[in-house]
């Protein structure tokens, strides 16, 4: 509704000078506020302000993402203590990409998940149904490997493992594997997760494959313990695998072939053409952790002796990895126990010139289900890491 002044003959309404500029007033119009009113307006508007969503942030490989996880008990009540075992990963099946996250226990029922971006677009926080206060002690200990040659944190992209520090991981086919291993002796010791490496490489060695422990009239066929050997005389390649000594969970073993890794290492001359790879963890989780500590200490001392008498020897340590657990296996094994062994392993070899292959991270970051024996594509990426160390790319001059 518009209001306009009307002409009138009443003396009080008589025009005295020119009219002020006309303003079209509506029901929503208002006069300019006084300074005090302006301050009050601002305070009232601030009181009801609604936060705007943050502007999209462009993330680059290596940028850090953070998430907060609040744990609840079985009745849905917030927990006020820590000790839960959580793992996290960021993955994208469409891109064949994935990266493992770090979980920080704040000891009050909340956990921070820290993940470095690698291109994926979905976050999975995977709680393991094993809660224990013992994990609190582990969280208070540093697991940084320090001077150990620790492969930097990496990620999968298009199915290949890449390193955040930009160090290229070479990709090897049958021809390049043979070229890399020419003139080399690769000694592999450990459980069946190390036997996987032997079996993968054996497929690329065109020479003779032997099982030295079998005799013609032996009624026992040992398919797990070994020793196994693959020889390529043309290219002077020798691959060997031997299982570690007790404790061991294989059903059929010959006692004479159950040898301790430290003793086997003491028999090696070492040198620039020698590669030693170790993986010992899967059979130790049912036993007191002191058993594992003593075993790793003896192996460390044997490695120190080997590196001293055979300069140039390349020593590779494979970590534990996540595994599938059914009701029966859960009685004696768990990823929580494996995590303890993995942290002991990292600390035990701190300061020693070894290459560490983080199988825990490489299996966690991968999209495949957890399995004590990772699928071939993970094994391929592990072997690529090792051979990149054995045969680094030549620097361009």
Automatic annotation (TrEMBL):
Annotated Polar residues bias: 1-10
Region ranges (Disordered): 1-20
Signal sequence, start to end: none
Stored Pfam families: Neurexophilin, NXPE4_C
Domain NXPE C-terminal: 171-391
Protein name in the entry: NXPE C-terminal domain-containing protein
Taxonomic source organism: Gadus morhua (Atlantic cod)
């Amino acid at each position: 509704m518009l209001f306009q002044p009307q002409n009138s003959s009443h003396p009080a309404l008589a025009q005295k000078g020119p009219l002020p500029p006309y303003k079209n007033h509506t029901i929503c119009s208002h006069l300019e506020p006084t300074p005090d009113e302006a301050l009050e307006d601002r305070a009232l508007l601030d009181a009801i302000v609604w936060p705007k969503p943050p502007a999209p942030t462009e993330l680059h490989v290596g940028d850090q993402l953070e998430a907060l996880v609040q744990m609840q008990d079985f009745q849905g009540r917030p927990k006020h203590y820590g000790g839960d075992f959580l793992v996290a990963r960021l993955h994208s099946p469409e891109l064949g990409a994935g990266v493992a996250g770090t979980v920080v226990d704040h000891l009050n029922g909340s956990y921070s998940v820290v993940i470095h971006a690698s291109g994926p677009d979905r976050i999975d926080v995977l709680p393991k149904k094993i809660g224990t206060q013992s994990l609190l002690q582990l969280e208070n200990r540093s697991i940084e490997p320090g001077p150990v040659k620790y492969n930097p944190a990496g990620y999968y992209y298009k199915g290949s493992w890449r390193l955040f520090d930009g160090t290229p991981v070479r990709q090897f086919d049958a021809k390049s594997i043979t070229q890399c291993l020419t003139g080399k002796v690769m000694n592999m010791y450990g459980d069946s997760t190390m036997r996987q490496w032997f079996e993968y490489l054996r497929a690329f060695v065109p020479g003779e494959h032997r099982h030295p422990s079998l005799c013609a009239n032996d009624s026992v066929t040992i398919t797990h313990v070994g020793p196994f050997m693959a020889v390529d005389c043309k290219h002077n390649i020798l691959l060997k695998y031997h299982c570690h000594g007790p404790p061991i969970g294989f059903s059929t073993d010959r006692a004479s072939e159950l040898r301790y890794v430290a003793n086997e290492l003491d028999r090696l001359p070492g040198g620039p053409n020698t590669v030693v790879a170790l993986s010992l963890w899967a059979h130790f989780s049912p036993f007191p952790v002191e058993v594992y500590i003593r075993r790793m200490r003896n192996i460390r001392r044997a490695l120190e002796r080997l590196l001293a008498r055979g300069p140039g020897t390349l020593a590779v340590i494979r970590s534990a990895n996540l595994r599938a657990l059914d009701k029966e296996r859960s009685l004696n094994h768990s990823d929580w126990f494996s995590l303890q062994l993995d942290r002991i392993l990292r600390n035990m070899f701190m300061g020693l010139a070894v290459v560490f292959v983080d199988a825990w991270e490489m299996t966690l970051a991968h999209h495949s289900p957890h399995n004590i024996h990772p699928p071939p594509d993970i094994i391929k990426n592990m072997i690529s890491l090792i051979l990149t160390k054995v045969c680094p790319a030549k620097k361009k001059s």
